[in-house]
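Project outcomes to date are best conveyed with an example. Our students and postdoctoral researchers have been running inverse folding experiments weekly, and each run begins with a structure described purely in tokens. The record below, which covers 112 residues, was selected by the lab manager from last quarter's runs and is presented without edits.
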């Protein structure tokens, strides 16, 4: 059986959190597309993982959503129990305590 011209097997991509960040910021795909001067279809394909993105695109989306590129790839902002969500809610003095507690936990965990 011959291959279809232009056929490429579906690539399994790692999960990203583009959609969750967009929704967390209260934006529609239309609003994000407008901010990025691109099409809604392109935003939809990036969110679904069917369209690859470049580093420039990743950084532009991060800027438009007021976050950093790494968070778009690794962090679900809608999870209130995640350490990052707790960190963002903490005041400066509380952040220092969180850091001290984390260091203590890591030190204790490595002595076993």
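After processing, the design step wrote out the following sequence:
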């Amino acid at each position: 059986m011959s291959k279809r011209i232009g056929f490429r097997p579906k690539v399994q991509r790692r999960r990203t959190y583009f959609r969750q960040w967009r929704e967390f910021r209260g934006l529609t795909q239309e609003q994000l597309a407008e901010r990025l001067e691109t099409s809604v279809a392109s935003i939809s394909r990036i969110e679904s993982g069917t369209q690859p993105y470049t580093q420039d695109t990743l950084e532009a989306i991060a800027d438009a959503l007021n976050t950093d590129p790494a968070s778009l790839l690794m962090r679900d902002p809608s999870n209130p129990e995640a350490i990052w969500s707790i960190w963002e809610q903490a005041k400066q003095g509380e952040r220092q305590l969180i850091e001290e507690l984390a260091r203590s936990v890591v030190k204790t965990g490595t002595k076993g």
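The chain is about 60% helix and 0% strand. The two ends are 58 Å apart (CA to CA). The training component of this project remains on track.
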